[in-house]
Write a structure and sequence with these properties.
This protein is of the alpha/beta class.
Length: 825
């Protein structure tokens, strides 16, 4: 909602028509004399050199995959090799215009982009800056190998050796690769030279690059961002969402002057006319020219143009124009860079979907041969220069290959032998010091924030202090919602790097009021409404965090995880471990778990998220823990999915006697909490199931004399078992309860672990209760679906120990039956 913008019916309903500017196709006009004056002969030769080096690296991979040998060096490579032979002009022309502060996010076919960007950054950087970058990355592990085995008296040549070796070692899964061998060919990246994650998911880099550009714009950082994605990626939703997010009108209409402008991102479409075997134009896409897409995004057509990607000078011209647009705040830009991959999608691809005649036609206009032909004809280089450079490139690559496959010099990580290795690479478990953070820009001083002042007048405990034991209403005591708000205010005021966005976050206050009052505190560039684009919301958060910012983004319902599945499971979760622990993703994704809204708005998908490695998963059940756990999540440098039950937003603190402390505090992630002590039975709960477990514990005590210990998990990942195992040793019995579907519940993992680790202590099988294995019904039927206190008591009676005189409810219990399993529910 943007109250500043009037929607006038007179304007909206008036007669008019839309017109569209033309989109240029191959407007570049070759003029070697002009190019020589513009760039200089040395630069033109360097462009040719870089294309040859890119080509030779991929020829090496092709020979290794196909023949097991390159220049007499034998090696068997088990991993992928998605080659871009024929596309060198696109990669080198793009990179020629970029420096190390410019960021490039690529695709799975990005060997060329990595090498080209690295070469350009090396050329434009000082030896001192490069030395700092090389020695600082991975503790200098790559640099030490290069100094010992690939040293060169010419520092630029040694830097090139660093680039080639780091990429080769990474491709072959070596600990001394750019990402310690955990990124591999499809995911290699090296931020010190502006080379950001290369993505195996089609179009996956578009949201990340949008987030990086968002960081540049909102944090007022220099440089532009490039998303190098394929033509087939324009068939994916996240790419379209990214186009729109990058060009949101509010960036020009509502942001203040300092932060105003479209995002500085180029969507550089490497258009080689094919996905894998599907031809985009004429078969799988609706457009005749990819650049036509730009007209569907904004009035500037995204400054789209189609260019000849076989000519590096045409690419340089297009990128130069794009930079001018971006630096004037007039982004985003779309470049349809037409090129051609002369090899198959992968080495196993026989190219049965295209003719030999077509491949031959493109080979006849090979970008390297064509470029050097022009240079020779124009007298820039002698006729022998192309062959000389190719020999130099082959020698450089062979030397790097020889060192990279030497296990004594370039070993692999030993993952199985020491589980601490992968744990340390997955989560860094570090936190920022809020006192040392750059102070957050606010519209008003925190102490003057009206909503915070109103909270200060509320009781901190939800239990009346008059001795009556009555529970106070949310109007009189701090609620779960209020507790979250207090932490958010503390962090946004203390740390200017933290930016918040999501659907209806501003003015509305978030769909469930957690941000109510935050609009008065934060300027728009720190809190803004996003489009209804869950993939772009989360993906941009990842790119923002990878770039040096701290993001907190929101999904209105857990059910919408499906709309952002790749961005949560393949982006947010993966980049820290795929970087070998060298990158950080300080990001919090708030996810609201619904109730009463039926099948598409009432699903608890916390177990699904917990099943994906790389994410911390938190699910508080009390206002006290909500405040402390969110503080830990926001202070930490790991990606956290923070679940919040809509059942709890209005609840007050009744578990902790002290209530919700007014001061800032952190609750450790991963440590469960004993809410009620007991000696006869243990109940472990997740999220809002805690209150129902407490009700069941009271009933078991009062009616059957069974004293139940109730433990709130608080976090699913990580989860420390010591406290739970100690409780089971004492009680001998365990019931686990959550609102997630029983099938696939994270609690099944807990049950299996406890059954293994505490087998001799158990007097009964571990029981897992959860929502039924069917769709969530409407509000009128929801307690037929979710676990109730009566379900817990029934399960104790039927599975743990008989309860004298207890009559079980009709129908199957909340622990499921074999018959239901056979029926698929």
């Amino acid at each position: 909602m943007a109250k500043e913008l009037l929607i006038d019916p007179a304007t909206a309903r008036s007669r008019s028509e839309l017109t569209f500017d033309s989109i240029a196709v191959n407007s570049y006009r070759p003029d070697l004399d002009r190019e020589r004056k513009l760039h200089g002969d040395d630069a033109l030769e360097r462009i040719g050199r870089d294309m040859i080096l890119v080509r030779e690296f991929e020829l090496m991979l092709q020979h290794i995959k196909r023949d097991g040998s390159y220049r007499g060096i034998d090696y068997v490579h088990a991993g992928p090799a998605h080659l871009s032979i024929g596309q060198e002009a696109a990669a080198v022309g793009q990179a020629f215009t970029l420096s190390s502060i410019d960021k490039v996010f690529g695709s799975h076919r990005s060997h060329g982009e990595v090498i080209a960007k690295g070469l350009s950054a090396i050329h434009s950087s000082t030896p001192e800056a490069l030395t700092d970058a090389f020695t600082g990355w991975s503790g200098g592990a790559i640099w030490n190998v290069v100094k010992d085995h690939l040293a060169d008296d010419d520092f630029e040549q040694q830097a090139i050796n660093y680039l080639l070796y780091g990429m080769t070692a990474e491709t072959f899964g070596r600990r001394t690769g750019f990402n310690r061998g955990l990124g591999g060919s499809m995911h290699a990246f090296f931020p010190p030279l502006g080379i950001y994650p290369n993505n195996a998911i089609v179009g996956g880099s578009a949201p990340l690059a949008t987030g990086a550009a968002l960081y540049n714009r909102l944090q007022r950082q220099p440089g532009i961002v490039v998303a190098s994605i394929g033509d087939a990626s324009t068939g994916t939703g996240p790419v379209w969402e990214s186009f729109n997010l990058a060009g949101m009108a509010q960036l020009n209409t509502l942001m203040d002057e300092k932060h105003r402008g479209g995002l500085p991102v180029v969507f550089f479409i490497v258009n080689n006319f094919y996905g894998m075997g599907g031809q985009t134009i004429g078969e799988t896409m609706a457009y005749d020219r990819l650049a036509r897409i730009g007209a569907g995004i904004n009035a500037q057509n995204m400054h789209a143009q189609t260019i000849d990607g076989n000519n590096p000078l045409a690419v340089i011209e297009a990128m130069t124009i794009a930079r001018q647009h971006l630096e004037s705040g007039d982004g985003p830009v779309l470049i349809d860079c037409q090129t051609y991959r002369q090899t198959g999608h992968s080495p196993s691809d026989a190219s049965s979907y295209r003719t030999k005649d077509e491949v031959d036609l493109w080979a006849a206009v090979d970008p390297i041969d064509s470029f050097f032909g022009r240079l020779v004809e124009g007298g820039v280089v002698p006729a022998s220069r192309q062959a000389d450079i190719k020999e130099w490139a082959g020698e450089r690559i062979a030397a790097s290959l020889q060192v990279a496959i030497d296990a004594s010099v370039s070993p692999r990580l030993s993952l199985r032998r020491d589980p601490q290795v992968m744990a340390a690479l997955t989560f860094n478990n570090t936190s920022i010091d809020l006192a040392a953070a750059p102070a957050g820009e606010t519209t008003v001083p925190v102490e003057e924030l009206t909503h915070l002042q109103s909270l200060a007048r509320k009781a901190r405990s939800g239990i009346a202090d008059d001795g009556s034991g009555k529970t106070l209403s949310g109007a009189k005591a701090i609620t779960f919602r209020d507790a979250l708000f207090e932490t958010i205010v503390a962090h946004t005021a203390a740390d200017d790097r933290l930016t918040l966005w999501g659907e209806e976050n501003r003015d509305w206050g978030g769909s469930f009021g957690v941000y109510r009052g935050l609009t008065e505190l934060l300027p728009r560039h720190r809190l803004f409404n996003s489009p209804i684009s869950e993939a772009a919301i989360v993906g941009a958060g990842v790119g923002y965090a990878l770039s040096g910012g701290r993001s907190m983004v929101e999904l209105m319902y857990a059910d919408f995880i499906g709309r952002a599945g790749d961005e949560i499971f393949n982006q947010m979760a993966k980049w820290q471990p795929m970087s070998g622990g060298l990158a950080t993703v300080p990001m919090v994704l708030r996810v609201s778990v619904g109730a009463k809204y039926g099948a598409q708005h009432s699903q608890d998908w916390s177990s699904m998220v917990a099943g994906v490695p790389g994410l911390k998963v938190v699910f508080p059940a009390t206002a006290h823990d909500a405040k402390g756990l969110l503080a830990s999540a926001l202070a930490g440098n790991d990606p956290v999915v923070f679940f919040e039950s809509q059942r709890l937003y209005d609840t007050v603190e009744t578990v902790y006697p002290e209530g919700v402390p007014a001061e800032y505090y952190q609750t450790p992630i991963g440590q469960p909490h004993v809410v009620r002590t007991g000696s006869d039975l243990t109940i472990l709960t997740v999220g809002a199931a805690l209150q129902r477990a407490l009700e069941a514990a009271t009933l078991l005590s009062e009616k059957f004399g069974i004293e139940t210990e109730v433990i709130d998990a608080r976090s699913l990942v990580p989860f420390e078992y010591d406290l739970l195992l100690e409780s089971v040793r004492k009680t001998g019995r365990l019931v686990c309860v959550s609102d997630a579907n029983l099938r696939g519940s994270w609690l099944n993992t807990v049950a299996a672990t406890v059954s293994t680790e505490a087998f001799d202590d158990l007097d009964a099988p571990v029981v897992v209760l959860g929502a039924r294995n069917w769709i969530a019904p409407p509000a009128e039927l929801e307690w037929e679906f979710f676990v109730t206190p009566a379900d817990i008591v029934d399960a104790v009676h039927t599975r743990v120990r008989p309860l004298p005189g207890h009559v079980v409810q009709e129908g199957p219990g909340a622990e499921g039956t074999l018959e239901e399993s056979a029926l698929g529910i």
